[in-house]
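WARN retry 2 of 3 for item q-0093 after timeout on previous attempt; input resubmitted unchanged.
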Amino acid sequence: MSTMAMAFPILPGKTAGWRTWMEELHGARQEEFAESRRRAGLHEQTFLQHAPTGDLVIVTVEGEDPRQAFESMVSQNDPFMTWFRSRAKEFHGVDLSKPMRDVTSELVIDSAAMAAAPA
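OK item q-0093 returned
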């Protein structure tokens, strides 16, 4: 199982609307959201981070190949993912329909791996 992390800024003045979007994912669209992640073979966690430079969303996805699975998932053209991509663009200014190959995160510290390594 591998993990990938991504950070997305919330556009200025959009945090309240972003929270409403998250409420939709926990409410009326919960099953569609969960099914999209099940089909992709991903476990996703989303964190809201308040920072002096503005609010950020930190997303972690876990799976066998999280980057490929995430890109495949967001490229789906079913009604839910079309809606999801439009909301991501509205609140983050990110077009998830385009490959994110130029957006990478570098794992710098893994405390579990450090603890398991022989001294």
